[in-house]
Amino acid sequence: MSAIDLDAVSKAFGDTQAVDDLSLHVEDGAFFVLLGPSGAGKTTTLRLIAGLETPDEGSVSFDGQPAQGAAPSARDLAMVFQSYALYPKQTARENIASPLRARRIDADTADSRIREVASLLHIDHLLDRQPQQLSGGEQQRVALGRALVREPRAFLMDEPLTNLDVKLRVEMRAELTRLHRTLGATFLYVTNDQAEAMSMADQVAVIDHGRLQQVGTPADIYDRPANRFVATFIGAQRMNLVDCTLEDGVLRGETGWQVPAPPTAPAGSGRFQLGVRPEDMSLTAEHGDATLAGTVYAVEPLGDRCLVDVQVGDDLVRVKAAPDADPALDSAVRLAVDVDRVHLFDHDSGLAVRDQEHAPVTT
Amino acid sequence: MRPARALRGGLLLLAVVLMLFPAVWMLITSLKDIQDVYAATVFDFTPTLDNYRDVFVSTSAAGGASDLVTNFSNSVIITALATLLATLIGVPAAWGFSRFDLKGAKDQLFFILSTRFMPPVVVVIPLFVMYRWAGLYDTRTGLVLLYTAFNLPFTIWMMKGFVDEIPGEYEDALMMDGYSRLQAFRQGSLPLLVPGILATAVFSMIFTWNEFTFAVFLTGSTARTVPPAIAGLLGGQSTPWGLVAAAAMVFALPVLAFGFLVRKHLVAGMTFGAVRR
Ligand SMILES: Nc1ncnc2c1ncn2[C@@H]1O[C@H](COP(=O)(O)OP(=O)(O)OP(=O)(O)O)[C@@H](O)[C@H]1O
Ligand SMILES: [Mg+2]
What we know:
The complex is a heterodimer of chains A (363) and B (277).
Chain A: E1 4-13, E2 16-26, E3 31-35, H1 42-50, E4 57-62, E5 65-66, E6 77-80, H2 92-102, H3 107-120, H4 136-148, E7 154-158, H5 166-183, E8 186-191, H6 194-200, E9 203-208, E10 211-216, H7 218-223, H8 228-233, E11 240-247, E12 250-252, E13 258-260, E14 270-276, E15 281-284, E16 291-301, E17 306-312, E18 315-321, E19 332-337, E20 343-346
Parallel strand pairs in A: 3-8, 3-9, 6-7, 7-8
Antiparallel strand pairs in A: 1-2, 1-4, 4-5, 9-10, 11-12, 11-14, 12-13, 14-20, 15-19, 16-17, 16-19, 17-18
Chain B: H1 2-30, H2 34-38, H3 50-56, H4 67-99, H5 105-114, H6 120-134, H7 140-165, H8 169-177, H9 181-210, H10 213-218, H11 226-233, H12 241-261, H13 263-270
The structure holds adenosine-5'-triphosphate and magnesium ion.
């Protein structure tokens, strides 16, 4: 059990800056999720913490003790590799037993540990198979088993559920969060799936191009995205962004629509982007305040709701509508915006201007 | 259908005859006494094993083991040691080059390879002088050192290719499990490298076993290996062709037998890159 700190860590591979001046504080016992798109530097960050890579600059510490130069084996961490890295000439059982063998745990204890972990992951019946005789999802669970068989000071998990079917993935998410509660251990969990991050994390750090974009609770990040990247990356449906100008407390769009500026908007004028999530808008017939006019471009019924793409000037705006809403294509519609839930971004820097307390990090 | 098959058979036969002709000729000659060697007929002779006896037993009045026996034991010892040493040093070196970010690794690798650019005949005279001075002339130690150095570039380059093919994450995972760097190499990569190591060692072995230029210049009688020894039989007033042929046959045998035994590993080693990772 241990807190992990990264202090201004950088790592480059040739011309690629994989991790760029990254500072993180992972609370002891937290379920901390590193979220970012492919190539963001998530795996590199985990490897830096594990001691498998050496930072070019900055330092990693555990409970305030700098780990500099400590061998990976001396850091007492368990890691699930994105590529699984199961040992090819060993059975699943031998793979899972490897950390116990390295520590010379006696056979009986090891055996019961392996059985526990195997039943948790539903791989009891696969223990005598070799990795090449297992499906991708089964291999992934064996890789998880090899990490979970021990109680290290922290678990590092690199996209450990990507290869499972939906049902199993949801079940394993629950098992992992449950395990986290019962063990009280620190989990550092990497994913590129924002829904997974939102549902599992105590704290989420969003990274892109090796740089920290925002760190906070899932609610923080969803409700108060620090910049355009975080705003559009988080959420099941991508946040809509529409160009606008601010003047006298009113936002004006290119097609002439007007929306009252949110209270956090700066005084004065300037160019901005209005961000609205599809769930914070609705189709309406009225010509009220805070409505955008457009024509229906596409309709996507999803059963419990209906996604409607509306062409507003040059932008496509997506709105979540009632399941029975079935507007005709190319018909004129109006979108009512929930003014309390809009986001405002500086047009050029992409930084959110909504939130003063959470000083945004530059992109 | 028929004529095509006959044609194919004929062509194959021709190829076999062409390829095996020198070997068969040697075999036949090794079974002839000296009159039959010089006779006009090829197949009309009485086979004798006298030549093979002369390879091992001295023809002098005193009897005892022949000089060739010494040469053979030199060849065996020198080849075995040089191959073993080159493998023991070369495999870890290749692993280092493959797994670690070494400064100037490319230049180092090129330098290592460049030691093989010089043809042996060019370096052998200075080496001769140095060996005289260092007391290594005509010693097995001298040849073992030389052949080890000569086999190393090849071993390092070939083994680096094999190590590159094995994902480093096996070793990473073992280190996370709590093993040291070296234990991780031993458990994670070494077992997968065995076919590659065997293939590389066989090439080292064949080179060392057959090497002629260094051996003829750097040895006298004590440490002389078989290739210069056989060549030495040719120089006198009359050449004992039967003995030469018999010695050559005996000399060829170990490599053939060894190659045959490890052929499966050889193929596995050489096609390693084709298997899925
Ligand atoms: N060993 C390496 N050599 C060269 N470049 C590397 C190496 N490892 C990573 N990179 C580069 O560093 C960047 C970050 O890679 P990283 O693997 O950390 O991304 P990631 O966030 O884990 O992505 P993914 O979600 O696809 O796994 C990428 O641009 C990648 O190409
Ligand atoms: Mg990754």
